[in-house]
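Title: Request for sanity check on Phosphatidylglycerol/phosphatidylinositol transfer protein prediction

Description:
We are preparing a figure and want to confirm that the structure record we downloaded matches what your pipeline produces today. Could someone re-run it with the sequence below and paste the raw structure tokens into this thread? We only need the token string, no images.
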Amino acid sequence: MRSTLIFAAFLALASPTLSLVAGSGESEQQVMEAINGSVHTFESWSWVNCGLSDDGVKIESIQISPDPPKPGKDLTVTVKALVQREIKEGANANVIVKVGLINIIKKNYDICEEARKANATVQCPVLPDSYTISHTVALPKDIPPANFNVEVKGLTPDDTDMFCVKLTADFSKA
């Protein structure tokens, strides 16, 4: 599950459009905190594990550099995760990117295929273990000055929940 979340985090941040990880209101964060545990908040972005207690992948941390991210600059994302059940071919990540209430991207990704395309250090099948994966992407120069919300839900090949992470980024001050 950990490596799947790492791949999902890459997916959410690797594509220039998906890099527009946006912010959410404080009340939504408070609700997520009450339901799922702590919200990890930084200067202009935050993330929360929205997965279930029995998910196969547990995201332990997500770090970015530079923090805050800057349009037109490289962004390095480092994810630490604990994979508790093997990630097999056919696992996928559903990614939704919103600005406010408007979906700007809603796409499904094959996690193993995306890992191959990115030449990731961890490839499918991913055996249970702890993993740390870093990936660097170039952010587009023309990121609109807005708050973005990204939700990434990982599913096994038989559509069982594998992980969930919600990311927010505020590019309104970038």
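Thanks, this matches our download. The longest helix spans residues 2-14.
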